[in-house]
Amino acid sequence: MRASRTRRHVVIAAGAALAVTGLITGCTAGDTGTSSQPTNNTDNEASGDKVVIGFSGPAADHGWLGAINSAALAEAAKYDDIELKVAEGTNDANLQISQIETFINDKVDAIVLLPTDGAALTGAAIKAMEAGIPVVNVDREFSSPFAARVTVLGDNYGMGVSAGTYICEEFGGTDAVVAEIAGIDSLPLTQDRSRGFADALEDCGLEVNNRVAADFTVAGGEAAASQLLAAAPKIDALWNHDDDQGVGVLAALDAAGRSEMVMVGGAGSKNAMEAIKADDGVLKATIIYPSTQAADGIRLARLLVQNKALGDLVEVDVPNRIVLYAPVVTKDNVDQYLPTAFTS
């Protein structure tokens, strides 16, 4: 029998929808402030001075990254005062570094960057900041606080907490077998998701019994799931970090005739949400990882260059760090999230 229980301190620790950290004070290598005082402008949609923004991201080799790119382009197109220079998507860190150097040479007003590897792109981002070009870092963090003026992140640790919380509410107080299919293990975001998942499970006496890693792709998800199923003859609950690779995970489950488990997805794809709404398979929930991050980055870059702030805050500067919420989507609330879902 599944036990339902009220979550306590773990949920409190991860429940903030918007985490805002104050600006780094003092003189830094990344100081791109202007001489005039920013204004808390409640009419930020009004057209202002022209802003040239350089945008660079990884290759759109799965649905979430495709949605990231298309949302950024669509957001820029809403404003007649934005000129967007888009670099070709790449998974080659050296090529992306050269793209940032090109933006610097072109003297763009701001750069929005989703790095293929945050550590590898840190030096190039610092160079842009030192050239007086504010950098908005999206999704994968740099390894230095001086590499970005603003960082926009999904809540990776919070995703793990949300997934673990859901499973605890279903299986807490039992000896359920819990499995995990992670993304790319070398990425800090994957490590954060796994850490949050383990912390939430520990709070209700569960643990990860079987774990494999994939690569955020359909083929990778299918291969990893097949490996997992061969090693685990029984699974009660499965968290798959990413709905794109989840297409392959579900294919492997179907091929193996494994339907005994409750599966939780991650990211929030349209096909995952439609399966949750239909409620006729193992997938019962997914955890949102917003595909709006680069679009948010475009908006924030515009505000920075135009010396404006967020109209709904009393603070007169754009925040240094914004962490987006990681809610659980189930059949009870899926209609709320379907309109913003991406297609795998």
TrEMBL record:
Name of this chain's protein: Sugar ABC transporter substrate-binding protein
Superkingdom classification of source: Bacteria
Signal sequence extent: 1-29
Subcellular location: Cell envelope
Species of the source: Homoserinibacter gongjuensis
Chief localisation class: other
Pfam families associated with the record: Peripla_BP_4 (PF13407)
InterPro entries registered for this protein in UniProt: Peripla_BP_I, SBP_2_dom
Domain Periplasmic binding protein as annotated: residue spans: 53-308
Keywords linked to the UniProt accession: Signal
Homology family: Belongs to the bacterial solute-binding protein 2 family.
